[in-house]
Design goal:
The chain is mostly beta strands. The protein folds into 3 domains: 194 residues, Immunoglobulin-like, CATH 2.60.40; 188 residues, Immunoglobulin-like; 181 residues, Cupredoxins -  blue copper proteins (Immunoglobulin-like, Sandwich), CATH 2.60.40. 5% of the residues lie in helices and 34% in strands. The strands form 8 sheets. Strands 1, 2, 29, 30, 31, 32, 34, 35, 36 and 38 form a 10-stranded mixed beta sheet that branches. Strands 15, 16, 17, 18, 20, 22, 23 and 25 form an 8-stranded mixed beta sheet that branches. The longest helix has 12 residues.
């Protein structure tokens, strides 16, 4: 359960108030995990084999700048049925990525894996193919809340009467009703029922151009046969960024598509791709579309790895699936593992809340009569765990070493993977999002057999089953079924979300020639340059003025002044539509101090860069109203102060956070410091990767270098 703590809650009156949450507090209740009409306890566990995603087939190669070539893919997002639940339970309608050829035989959620080589660009033509057999646009599988700052293809006007995409519509004079009760547009509004906006982001891509990053306002609709001519077919930034693609790569824009080219300048690492449409990411990703993007060096490995015993080349467990594999596959000892949480209805359909009431029992009133959105839920915790698209699967393994590239693909859930119930297993972490660590971390010996992963974080693990007795053994999750705060908590339900995957251990069939992880000498990682600037930002929770203890939004902001000084730093809220405040120069190295004024931990992701985790340190939270000087232009938004206690000391990164990362957990009542270098000019974003937070204001733009005069204002 959550430990007692105080934290700031931003109210609609632009004030910060100190609250306490105890073990018996309300916030535990709001994070309970009811779900759809399918009882998770009734689902047979470990009945289905784990699907190991094959490699995504290429569409071809394209000459690029002389002798170099580009690996080219055409990938469509489509709707199809997938056997996520074990038979005889019914299949589930999902969305997923797959090759753009006819049919959905190679579509899956999560998708086939893109295998890429460092330094060899990959170009993808992403296609929004969410249409039926006759080419008519499909509606969303899940309820779309139109009151957020979202894609808004209907261009519903804002409170100033301005009609545009990518804004928060105004519903003054109307009341929200469920879609089956909607009949009068002059007095009512309901969930959006139109064609689905999408845009794909390659999470962790370092140095990617702005035209290829999947900017959240560069979404696009399918090229359907029945589009209403009054609908916008693309977001505010779509035409501008598509024009840059044409200019830089010679690819003309086509309706219903997005072309991205990834330079693959990263170190060899585990990346993944998913949707990033404004105000809809939580829904689009929950419907299924995601996939691994594995970047290797020119030899198909991870760089110069040595064996300390001999000084010769070290070897990691393998192989992984390759494009050249036979249709029936082969034994794989490197396996990507995507863990997600979902809830289901008894007919097999995905369950996702269609009312805010599901979260905390609040029954309205809704916007515009209050500050509460009628459908959006502040967090969501599914009551089953799915691994590579199947609920509670099993994996047959041999008594040898395996490499597991593990992704936390959950909406809001922090995972604490526990290998402790597997007798004599030996687990090492050799990498994270940014590639291999400087040295392997002994999870079994130093971390009690546990690996902590916030949403979007990855862990590259070597799991040694050599001494594990033959039999069936379960990987557990002992993270909470509620928002994670970093302190004490009740672990997940041991009968449902506390179980992840069953390993069925058998005798080794072939010799294991991989290097024991304790003898691996991993590649050195050059340090980033010293920072030229310290930038201070804030994480903020906005509480409703209409309902007690009801979160209304999650936000970002800036801190003005030095929290290390006695006066502290002032906290100011910034919303998505506000002027850009994170504006590093191109090539600049910055130290960001992320001040978490909320009661929960937040996984913070910064696009375009791989950063170093520097330190964390406790902070004190103060109420507003004191005159600390400076930042008068922000005074109307001043909501509180943060101060670093003079007797506190920073602590360094956790063992698995060494090297480079793209997502970091920012704990409550702490400042988290990260260092990064911005080498690529353009418009990007940073945000919380709790998807429900990201979709309702916990995302802000980054402008690297001077803006282009032709870009959207």
């Amino acid at each position: 359960m959550l430990t007692r703590r105080t934290f700031l809650k931003y109210t609609g009156a632009t004030t910060l108030t100190l609250f306490a949450t105890t073990a018996a507090g309300q916030r535990i209740a709001v994070a309970s995990i009811p779900g759809g009409s399918l009882d998770p306890a009734s689902v047979e566990k470990f009945a289905s084999p784990l699907l190991i995603p094959p490699a995504m087939p290429r569409a071809g190669t394209i000459p690029w700048r002389g002798a170099r070539s580009v690996d080219y893919y055409e990938i469509a997002m489509r709707q199809f049925e997938q056997q996520a639940l074990p038979p005889p339970l019914p299949p589930t309608t999902v969305w997923g990525y797959g090759p753009a050829g006819s049919g959905t035989a190679l579509h899956h959620a999560p998708s086939l894996t893109i295998e890429a080589t460092a330094g060899v660009p990959v170009r993808v033509r992403w296609i929004n193919d969410l249409v039926d057999a006759d080419g008519r646009a499909l509606p969303h599988l899940l309820p779309v809340d139109p009151t957020l700052h979202w894609a808004n293809p209907q261009r519903l006007p804002d409170r100033h009467g301005h009609r545009s995409t990518d804004q928060k519509p105004d519903f003054t004079g109307r009341v929200f009703v469920p879609s089956d009760q909607y009949h009068d547009p002059t007095t009512q509004y309901t969930t959006y029922q139109g064609p689905v906006p999408i845009v794909t982001h390659l999470h962790g891509a370092d140095g990617v151009g702005q035209e290829s990053d999947g900017y959240t306002e560069a979404w696009y609709l399918p090229a359907a046969t029945d589009l209403d001519p009054d609908l916008a077919t693309g977001g505010r930034w779509y035409a501008y960024l598509a024009g840059l693609v044409h200019q830089r790569f010679g690819v003309a824009p086509e309706p219903g598509t997005q072309t991205s080219q990834y330079p693959n300048d990263n170190r060899p690492s585990t990346l993944w791709f998913h949707d990033h449409a404004l105000g809809m990411t939580r829904l689009n990703v929950y419907a299924g579309p995601a996939g691994f993007f594995l970047l290797r060096d020119g030899s198909g490995g991870d760089g110069p790895i040595r064996d300390a015993r001999t000084g010769g080349r070290g070897t990691l467990p393998g192989p992984a699936p390759r494009r050249t594999d036979p249709p029936q596959g082969r034994p794989y000892y490197e396996i990507p593992i995507a863990i997600q949480d979902r809830s289901f209805n008894s007919d097999g359909s995905l369950f996702y809340p269609d009312s805010r009431t599901f979260f905390d029992g609040v029954t309205g009133p809704w916007l515009p009569e209050s500050d509460l959105s009628p459908v959006w839920n502040p967090e969501f915790f599914g009551n089953t765990l799915i691994v590579n698209g199947r609920v509670w699967p099993h994996l047959a393994v041999e008594q040898r070493r395996y490499r597991f590239r593990v992704l936390n693909g959950c909406q809001s859930r922090v995972l604490l993977l526990d290998f402790g119930s597997i007798p004599d297993v030996d687990v090492w972490q050799i990498g994270n999002e940014g590639g291999l660590l400087p040295e392997a971390v002994h999870v079994t010996g130093d971390l009690s057999d546990r690996v902590l992963l916030g949403p979007a974080e990855r862990a590259d693990l070597v799991v040694d089953f050599t001494d594990v007795p033959p039999g069936a053994w379960v990987l557990h999750n002992v993270g909470p079924d509620e928002p994670f705060g970093g302190g004490e908590f009740e672990p997940a339900d041991p009968q449902t979300t506390g179980q992840v995957l069953q390993f069925r251990v058998g005798r080794a069939r072939t010799p294991d020639r991989s290097t024991p992880p304790q003898h691996l000498v991993l590649p050195e990682i050059p340090a980033l340059p010293a920072e030229e600037r310290v930038r201070r930002v804030a994480l903020i929770e906005a509480m409703s003025m209409a309902a007690e203890e009801a979160p209304a939004r999650a936000l970002l902001g800036v801190v003005v002044g030095d929290p290390a000084r006695p006066a502290g730093g002032k906290v100011f809220v910034k919303e998505w539509h506000d002027e850009v405040t994170e504006d590093p120069d191109r090539g600049a190295t910055e130290l960001w101090e992320i001040y978490n004024t909320t009661g929960d931990a937040h996984p913070i992701h910064v696009h375009e860069v791989a950063f170093e985790v520097v330190s964390r340190q406790p902070i004190l939270l103060g109420e507003p109203g004191e005159d600390h000087g400076g930042a008068e232009e922000h005074e109307l938004e001043h909501i509180g102060t943060v101060t670093i206690p003079p007797d506190s000391s920073p602590r360094g990164p956790e063992p698995g956070e060494a090297g480079r990362k793209d997502t970091v957990i920012a704990y409550p009542e702490e400042v988290t410091r990260i260092r990064m270098q911005f080498d690529t000019a353009g418009r990007y974003v940073w945000h919380c990767h709790i998807l429900e937070h990201e979709d309702h204001e916990m995302m802000r733009p980054i402008q690297v270098g001077q803006p282009d005069p032709d870009q959207p204002s």
